[in-house]
């Protein structure tokens, strides 16, 4: 953030406000961690803050400090709308296009209050009065840490805030293994631990609380994996029938796409997940090296994200979606063979 933006934020927060904090639809660890971390900080400064998420989030994140205060728009519709009407400031975290807010998009788009965006994805829209956008950052949680520091509040980071921000950084960096993890990231994580983040407990609660259904879905996904060595690519399909067979719950497919990249020689991994309720095939893309899945997702599957991690969707059948993917994959064969 530049000096002018920091001063503008300080001015906006100089008196008590009704603030709503919103993450993207299908919130992950970074979305929930960043919103709750900021919520705790704003509450401590005397603001009437609320976190409203578009829809529910995975069970493995529901241990997080403050999660019982989150309003889920799909479930708490009237209360959520009331909070939005009362708001005089809105933060949007971990997304940069209002379309990523799901059913909340129209309410946000028609709101006349100032917005502050904190996000690390590419090509942000310009709906916010203050935009803190940095695609080089490991996570929105790292940015919220910086945001608090810019406001002079680093010494006010509590163990609760530290737990939330640590969780988001850990999950969005793949436990600190992705290239977005910098020495600054590690220094921030060290400071969060010093301020009370219980890192062994967090790792356990996020990664070691699997259900039988989640492991069965993982087994099904790995069985369905197709390896295309000539394209350095692996892809997985999961049909609605397969998800139903193993009693799929929200979050059960989180991270499954990354298994493709654990294969020697594979640099591009994709998972196609059928969602009959929404009438779409949800797609997650991951890559290593300089192959931009962000551009691939934007160009072919109405999506986007980061250089090495992106999402998209398709509104045709699973087979048609895969066929389309394979066609476009062949167009990038030369680039993939050089990874």
UniProtKB/TrEMBL annotation:
Residues 250-331 form the DHHA1 domain. Gene3D superfamilies: 3.10.310.30, inorganic pyrophosphatase (n-terminal core). GO terms for molecular function: nucleic acid binding. InterPro entries: DDH_dom, DHH_sf, DHHA1_dom, Oligoribo/pAp-PDE_c-di-AMP_PDE. Residues 18-169 form the DDH domain. This is Bifunctional oligoribonuclease/PAP phosphatase NrnA. It comes from Pelagihabitans pacificus.
């Amino acid at each position: 953030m530049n000096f002018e933006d920091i001063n503008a934020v300080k001015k906006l927060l100089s008196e008590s406000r009704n603030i709503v904090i919103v993450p993207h639809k299908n919130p992950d660890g970074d979305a929930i961690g960043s919103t709750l971390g900021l919520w705790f900080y704003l509450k401590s400064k005397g603001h009437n803050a609320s976190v409203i998420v578009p829809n529910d989030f995975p069970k493995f994140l529901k241990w997080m400090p403050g999660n019982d205060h989150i309003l889920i728009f799909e479930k708490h519709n009237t209360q959520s709308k009331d909070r939005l009407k009362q708001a005089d400031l809105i933060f949007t975290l971990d997304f940069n296009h209002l379309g990523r807010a799901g059913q909340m998009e129209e309410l946000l788009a028609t709101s006349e209050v100032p917005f502050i965006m904190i996000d690390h994805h590419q090509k942000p829209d310009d709906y916010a009065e203050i935009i803190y956008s940095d695609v080089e950052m490991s996570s929105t949680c790292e940015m919220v840490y910086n945001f608090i520091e810019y406001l002079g509040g680093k010494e006010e980071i509590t163990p609760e805030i530290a737990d939330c921000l640590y969780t988001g950084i850990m999950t969005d960096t793949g436990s600190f293994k992705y290239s977005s993890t910098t020495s600054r990231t590690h220094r921030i994580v060290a400071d969060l631990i010093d301020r009370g983040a219980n890192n062994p407990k967090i790792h356990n609660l996020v990664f070691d609380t699997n259900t039988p259904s989640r492991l069965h879905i993982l087994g099904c996904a790995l069985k369905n994996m197709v390896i295309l060595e000539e394209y350095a690519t692996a892809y997985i399909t999961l049909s609605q029938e397969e998800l139903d067979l193993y009693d799929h719950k929200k979050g059960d497919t989180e991270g499954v796409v990354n298994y493709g990249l654990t294969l020697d020689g594979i640099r591009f991994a994709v998972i196609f997940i059928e969602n009959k309720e929404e009438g779409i095939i949800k797609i997650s893309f991951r890559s290593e090296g300089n192959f931009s899945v962000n551009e691939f997702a934007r160009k072919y599957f109405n999506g986007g994200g980061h250089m090495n991690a992106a999402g998209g969707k398709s509104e045709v059948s699973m087979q048609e979606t895969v066929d389309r993917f394979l066609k476009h994959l062949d167009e990038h064969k030369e680039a993939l063979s050089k990874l």
